[in-house]
C-alpha cells in the first residue's frame, strides 16, 4: 500500500501546484458517443470500468507511432494488462484484430473496457479486459485531404561495458587461481594484448565501437487521409508508408531496414430510411531486411581476444605463396584485408555481416469487414437489427540467401624482427548457391460474425430504455495448431435510466466452449450495475458539476485459462492420456511395453470464473476545473486448473520409472486481485495561456488465494503471496575463509570456496537448499502513474508526458552479471572478491566453473525497477490562418519533439542498458500536418 500512498501524495502535490486538474473528458469533449461492447453510448451515460481516449484530439498535440502508446499515461486501469490481468482482447472496429496493425493517425478513439460488466458481452475470451479501437470514418461535406509527414532520428542511450582483451585475460587468470588451477595466460601475453602494437595478432574486438555503427538511425513516415461524402455515402481513405534503418553499418547491415505500407478504406452507405451498411478494408505490407549476423547477441558473448575480424594481407610473407594463394582466392577480400578465424571460432560476426547472406521477414495482412443495419421501426419503434461479418488473413515468411565463407587463421612469427604471418590455416570455404530460400512460413485466418437486435426508446422524456439480444462468434486458425482458437456466446443486455439520474444495467452472456466436457460446455455469465447521478437531486446547484456513482458485480465464465504447459490449446484436458512407456516389458505382454498414465479423467471440469465487485466514481467540479474518474475493484479468478495431489490418494501416482499418474486436472486454484485506478485532470487559463495537467494511475495487489501445496515450512507457501513473485535465498555477505565455510550450515549447491555468497538457513535444519527460499519481491510493478501536461499560448502548443513506476523488482541474472565458465567479462568483475579486497568487494569470487552456489536467485542479485521516465515532449506551432486565405490550404501545423528523453532511477544504468540486443534509443523528430 505504501506505493499507492506515494503516488497519491504526488498527485496531490501536482494538483495543488497546477491550480486544478481535469479529467480525460476535458480533453475529449469532442466525443459525443463512446464505443463500448457492440454499441455506442452517450458519454454522460458511461458506467464504471470504462475509459476512453480521443485519439484525434491527442494527435493535434503529440505525434505517436503506436496505437496503444497513450494508454498507460492518459487513463487509469492499465498496468501491463487491465486491472491486473494480462491477455486482454483487442477489438478493432468490432473485429478481433492486432493493435499493432493500426497506426494512431487512423484511429478515432480507443476505449478500455476493464470491468466485468463492460466486457461480458464479448464472451469468454474477453474475460481479462478489452482494448477497443475505432478507426476514423467519413464525414459529410466536401472532399478533404489531410497530409502528415515525419522524420525522426534515434541515438543510442547506453551500451554494456565489457573488459578489453588484456583486462579480461588478467581476471580470467584470477578465476583460474580461485578454482585451484594454473594461470591460463602469461604476463607476456597479457602485455602484448595491452600494448596494442599489433591488433591483428593481439586483437581487442570491441563490437560496440563506433567504427561498426552509425551515430544515429533515421525514420521517415508519410500518411495521406481523404474524407468526405453526402448524406447517402460517406468515405474515409488513408494510405501511408514508413521506413527506418538500423544502427549497424558493418557490411550488409548498412542496408538493414524495416518498412510498412498500408491502405485503409472505410465507407458508410445509407440505401434508404431502413437500410444502411458499412464496408471496411485494410491491406498492410510489412518488410524487415537484415544481414545474417547476430551482432548484438554475439556482442554479449564473444570474448574480445579470440578472433581478429580482419587481418591485412600485407602481413603474409611474400615467399609464402601457398598462404597468399589461399587468401587471394577468397571472394570476400576487404580492401587488402581477409577474414580472420580460429578453430574454435571459424566464423565471426563481422565476416557474417559481409558474407553469410541476408534475410527478409515478410508480413502481409488483409482485413475486410462489413455491417448491415436494418431499421425495424415499422415493426416497433426503436427496434434495429445489426449484422457484422469480418475476415482477416495474415501470412508471414522469411526469404533470403544463406552463404558460407572461408576464414583464415594465421601462424605468426617474428624471427626477422617485425610480426609476420608464417602460414595460414583455412576454415570453411566460399559457397554461394544463388538460390533464394523461403522458410518459417506461417498463416493466421480469423473470421468474426455477430448479429444483434437493439431496442432503444425514451418514454415521457425521462424513461430511457435499451435492450440488446446478441449472438457473437469468432475463430482463429493458425498453422501448427490443430485446434482453432474459438469464442462463441450469446448475449443479453437490459438497461434503464431515469432522466440520466438513476441507472440499472443487466448484462449477461452464455459462453460455449468445446474445451470442456459435454454437459459443461455452456454457462451463464451475469453482471449487474447500478448507477446514481446525485447532481440531479441532492447535489444540484453545488460546486459539483457532475457526479456519477456506480456499483457493479458479476461472474464471467472463461476458458482462456483452460490450458497447461503441456497443452497450450487446452483441448481434451478432461480426458485420460494413456501411452506406452518404459524400456522394459511385462512377460505376459509378449514384448509389449508398459503402460503410462499421463493424467486421469475429469468430466466435471468447468469454466474458470472471474468473480468481481467494483465501485466507480466519475464527475467534475467547479465548472469542469477538476474532473475525475476513480474505480475500486476486487476480483477472484476462481477454478484455475491444477493437478491437485492433496485431493487424491498417493497411490494415484507412480514415482518410480516409468512415472505414471491418474490424477486429473481439476478446477481448484484461486487468484485474487484488489486495486484502484484513477484519472484526475484539470485545466486553468492564466492570461493567454491555457494550462492543463493530467494524472492517471493504477495500484493493484494480486495474491494466490488458494493453492494445492505440500510444503514443510509456512514461509514457502504461495498462499497470500503475490502472483508475480520473485523467490530466492537470502544472502548474508561472502564467505571470507575456509573456517567460515566449515562452521556454516552444509552447502548443497555445489563446491563452496572463500569469496562465495553466504546464505541464511531459514529453517535452521543445518543445510542450505531450496527449502531456504523465501519471497523476495514482485517482478511486476504494483503502482504505475502517468503524467501529461499541455500548455497552449497563441498558436503554440507544448505537450509533455511522463511515467512513474513504483514497487517492482528484477534480477541481475543475465550473462552480464552472472559471469562464469568461459563467458565474456563485464565491468562488474572489477569488484570481485579476492582475499585482498574482502572488505570492499561487491561481487563474488570469479570462477571458471558454473558457479552454481552464486548464480541463483537471491536478494544479492535483486534490484529495484522504480523509476520516472520523461517519455515524450513536443512543441507544435499552427501557422496563422491568414496565410492561407484564398488558397486551397486549410491549415498547416509544424512540430518538433523527442521521446524517451530522461530516466530518473537509482538503477538507471541497468534499466537503460540492453544485453544481447540492440540498444535502447532516444529519438527526436520533426514533422508537419497539413489540411486541404
From TrEMBL:
First and last residue of the signal peptide: 1-23
Keywords associated with the record: Signal
Source domain of life: Bacteria
InterPro entries: Plug_dom_sf (IPR037066), TonB-dep_OMP_SusC/RagA (IPR023996)
Gene3D superfamilies, alphabetized: TonB-dependent receptor, plug domain
NCBIfam families (UniProt xref): OMP_RagA_SusC
Protein name, as recorded: SusC/RagA family TonB-linked outer membrane protein
